[in-house]
């Protein structure tokens, strides 16, 4: 009888421990519900598993990257140009250059106004002195007055920009990890396209010597880029689907591009297109690209 009671007691204790563990898990879930839901939505967990996405996950807000990870320049929403019915080509335009042009024009206008005021003051002073001397001198002895030009320096235009690029590096144990570098590039109206094209081209000699490698598929071309509501849509040629390093290469190239694109302050995630088409999986290995990917996706 006592053995039976002891067995029941052990069963009761075990059940109590299970209930306590379940309660702790529930409490942790409730505390971190927003973060968990954000990560589930960002990684497309339910879409990848074929399950219906719960309503609380669908409504979750994806957390943005920190300001420290962002570039100083920002791409903005783009326009589409129809080339005689051949198709739409997406071009990116940088708002930063326009803002800097406006600032430069304002500074120039202010400097021009200051220059005119200084010239007027100098001229008035010279005229005043001349009039006094004319009254005391003979006409043939009047001194010649030299007007000095007052120069005002204007703000120089910035001709370069620093962009964050993300390459991959192979560690001593054979594992692959992400590596951030900052490259100074010629300033343009399409910094996002410039950054992605730099990844496609690969690291320069100094970056390669530091261990940087690009896993973006060979012969890949960036056909177009646009940014709208925090999502950068990047359209690549068909070569983007085939990576000689297999599934790890595909994941690496996606990671490189997502981290590089989201380094711009107006970009939170990336929607990938191949030859203008939205696909659920990339390549025969089946890496998910059916929804926009962000940094939490890796």
TrEMBL record:
Protein's UniProt keywords contain Lipoprotein: yes
Stretches the record annotates as Disordered: 115-153
Composition-biased stretches (Basic and acidic residues): 115-151
Transmembrane segments annotated in the record for this chain: 12-31
A Pfam family assignment: Germane
InterPro entries assigned to the protein according to its UniProt record, in alphabetical order: GerMN (IPR019606)
Keywords: Lipoprotein, Membrane, Transmembrane, Transmembrane helix
GerMN domain segment(s): 192-283
Keyword Lipoprotein belongs to the record: yes
Name of the protein in question: Lipoprotein LpqB, GerMN domain protein
Source organism: Treponema succinifaciens (strain ATCC 33096 / DSM 2489 / 6091)
Source organism phylogeny: Bacteria, Pseudomonadati, Spirochaetota, Spirochaetia, Spirochaetales
């Amino acid at each position: 009888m006592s053995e039976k009671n002891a067995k029941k007691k052990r069963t009761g204790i075990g059940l109590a421990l299970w209930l306590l563990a379940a309660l702790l898990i529930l409490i942790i879930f409730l505390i971190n519900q927003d973060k968990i839901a954000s990560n589930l939505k960002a990684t497309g967990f339910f879409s990848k598993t074929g399950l219906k996405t719960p309503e609380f996950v669908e409504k979750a807000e994806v957390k943005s990257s920190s300001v420290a990870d962002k570039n100083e320049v920002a791409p903005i929403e783009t326009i589409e140009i129809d080339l005689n019915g051949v198709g739409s080509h997406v071009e990116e335009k940088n708002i930063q250059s326009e803002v800097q042009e406006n600032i430069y024009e304002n500074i120039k206008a202010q400097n021009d106004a200051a220059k005119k005021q200084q010239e007027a003051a100098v001229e008035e002073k010279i005229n005043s002195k001349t009039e006094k001397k004319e009254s005391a001198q003979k006409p043939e002895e009047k001194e010649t007055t030299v007007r000095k030009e007052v120069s005002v320096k204007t703000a120089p235009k910035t001709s370069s920009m620093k962009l964050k690029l993300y390459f991959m590096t192979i560690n001593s144990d054979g594992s692959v990890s992400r590596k951030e570098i900052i490259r100074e590039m010629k300033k343009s109206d399409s910094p996002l396209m410039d950054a992605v094209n730099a990844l496609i081209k690969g690291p320069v000699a100094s970056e390669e010597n530091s261990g940087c490698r690009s896993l973006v598929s060979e012969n890949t071309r960036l056909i177009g880029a646009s940014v709208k509501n925090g999502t950068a849509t990047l359209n690549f040629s068909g070569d983007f689907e085939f990576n000689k390093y297999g599934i790890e290469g595909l994941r690496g190239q996606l990671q490189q591009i997502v981290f590089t694109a989201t380094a711009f302050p107006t970009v939170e995630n990336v929607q990938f297109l191949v030859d203008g088409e939205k696909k659920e999986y990339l390549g025969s290995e089946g890496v998910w690209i059916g929804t926009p990917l962000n940094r939490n996706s890796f």
